[in-house]
Amino acid sequence: MMTNLIAGLRAEGRRLTRSRKAILDVLEKSKYPLSAADVHARLKREQVAVDLVTVYRTLAVLKKLGLIAQVELGEGQFRYETRHGREHHHHIRCRGCGRIADLMLCPLKKLTALVERETRFTVEEHSLEFFGWCPKCR
Amino acid sequence: MMTNLIAGLRAEGRRLTRSRKAILDVLEKSKYPLSAADVHARLKREQVAVDLVTVYRTLAVLKKLGLIAQVELGEGQFRYETRHGREHHHHIRCRGCGRIADLMLCPLKKLTALVERETRFTVEEHSLEFFGWCPKCR
DNA sequence: GTGATACGTGCAAACAAGTTGCAATTGAGA
DNA sequence: TCTCAATTGCAACTTGTTTGCACGTATCAC
Across the interface, which of A72, A95, A123 has its CB nearest the CB of B130? Predict the structure, then answer.
């Protein structure tokens, strides 16, 4: 949210701009993760003129600040969603219509520790996605 | 493996070709999932002349036949690995060097049932990937 | 408030991954 | 061996994402 945005940007000597606010705002309002093109289209719909390139650059900044998360759902593109006010969660995507729903669960705490022990990697993040058919497409 | 390949192809009125054998073979030999470009490079190294386009088309066929699985590891590209002789498993990828290791575990049976009940989707597949730092890059 | 400066933006162009159209080639059944 | 549809290679294209550069503008010091 805006407080975090300002603080995060400050901390890196970066600036708060109209575009950044607008892009974060679009993501905050969406119920599911958006692609760069999605964000761009929504900004246009709201009469906010921001270049697609700026959307990409801004998403990179917001991601680095930890304000948004990058998600891959088997589409060959990235999607982004806010972290603000949302619990850690995962997604399910319909193979028919592409509908995406949130799953407010994550039982991987213990598993992460196990993975670290087994592989000697330090786990920083994980992604868990389900794919299937929604009621309408079944 | 070849028997499955032949049977699968037959069943769809498709043919067994040198390229298809070679591509499946490359995937069988790899210890980690490969991108289309990786497969292409390895074929070239083995003096097997196959166009990159054919690699893409073949990967699509093998995937449809269920002989290989498509994996996304946060790189903005797809990777593929054989299913033959390998248990269902997941991966961990190093944020430093990109090294990919297999994780021979998957505790999601129960969770899948839970997801189906909650979302009313029919779950067909899931992906679970970890990201972190390998011992060398830490 | 004003000015200086480095960060941010738009536009065009480049890149990278993956796809498509089409003519030439080839596997597999008759 | 012949036939014919499936397969392949090549070129061109599409889509998603990144980069270079000149211009614009937040922010800080005064």
Answer: A123
